């Protein structure tokens, strides 16, 4: 059993609080990414789980054992660092075998386990080479092999792909997904790259300033962000936000946007917040027709699509259009918003409001 639990965990470095009140349960065998910008507390969280930092308060458990005071070497975890940290004077085989040798495992057993890990990671033909003779991706696999050979309960990975180029990162993402599927162990992965988190994870823990913002499967984080920070952090290009006010009363409310009212139904008939923000993802803006009009300010062809920035009375909107769209800077263009995909947030708290928008008499969940 390798469930990981953080219970009201706080970590302070003097007056600076790195992690505040973290409650998080990572299920046995799950692949969970800790995601957020630099300084959000994700690496500190990982280091506390590894035993390299100790919580100021709260408890951390692996399985049924609280590990707050347990030494790193006795936690049955393995950590893969961003720098790989391979021993340059050792061969690939010796690097992989080193944790076993350190723990006194017999030579014959070491060789058997190294051979097994090498097969898993397709390193058999590289066992005699030194790290300097390897590519970045091969070095990364050796670092994974050194962790895998110990057969730990939990793998901890601290931005292990950040030193690789884009093509190699994509390849290694696929390899990590397949490795997780084969070994069936718990993976806790730190990254600031939302693409890594979205493509590899069972769940994503989005953090900001040491506080957990949302913990959910990738699709839920994208489709139903808990607040404006999550909505703006997840997605490339990020979500657009249009400031506005609610009009009317419960059951007959509307979001007033650029002179056009979008009827809104709030969950439970709640009284509408007057100051709100409308969230619109770029793919949910349809150019070419609709009740709104804007001016094209930027056109960026990317090959498979075109990013178009439209300036409107409601604000600036980044939109996605087809690869063959023909628009010129300065051109006036009508547009519409996909009602069933809109998001509503309280401007003061930035929290998501449970609301559904109406278009042509048909309500749709936002």
Q: Which features characterize this protein?
A:
366 residues, alpha+beta, Rossmann fold, OB fold (Dihydrolipoamide Acetyltransferase, E2P), eight-stranded antiparallel beta sheet, six-stranded mixed beta sheet, elongated, disordered C terminus
In the CATH hierarchy, what is the superfamily of the largest domain? P-loop containing nucleotide triphosphate hydrolases
Helix and strand succession? EEEHEEEHHHEHEHEEHHEEEEEEEEEEEE
- Distance from N terminus to C terminus (CA atoms, Å) equals 38 Å
**Could you give the count of β-strands?**
22
Main location: membrane
InterPro entries: AAA+_ATPase, ABC_transporter-like_ATP-bd, ABC_transporter-like_CS, ABC_transpr_MalK-like, ABC_transpr_MalK/UgpC-like, Mo/tungstate-bd_C_term_dom, NA-bd_OB-fold, P-loop_NTPase
GO biological process, one term: carbohydrate transport
Keywords: ATP-binding, Cell membrane, Membrane, Nucleotide-binding, Translocase, Transport
